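Re-run with default settings, no changes from the original entry. Doing this only to confirm the output is reproducible before filing.
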Amino acid sequence: MSTQTNQPRIVIDTREKCPLDFGDVTTVRKTLKTGDYSLEGYEHLMACERKNWQDAWGSMSAGRARFERCVARLAELDRAAIVIECTLMGLCERPPQIQRTTAASVIGGLVSWSVKYNIPVFFAGNREFAARITLRWLASWMKHRAPVVGK
């Protein structure tokens, strides 16, 4: 993707509290039905959900039912992805405030949902790489899956 005007802008959900930095790529804030990132004009077809380490733990423990509803909505789209801002091993470090949830259940749940809902989960390692993976995923969707206009 480029910053040229013929390229769609990245849509960042208005509820995204700490948006990823996409450098000089044009972004716009809008409320998305599901997910945190999409492409303008294609919000009904694709979205990417971002989680940091703490969000991932919260979403797979106390917020599990709500997050599964989010994942189910993502699965209704043509394509969706989940990008997590840590490594797989890093996610295994359990936060002290989370009770009765193990790293095995968090990882197992994410793997299970990735199969059940056909949504890839990317472990980015950090925020910078989460932005790079999200940007690359959005660009790849445009290249391989976006409907051709005028046909």
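Helices lie at 53-59, 64-75, 88-91, 103-116, 127-144. Residues 127-144 form the longest helix (18 residues).
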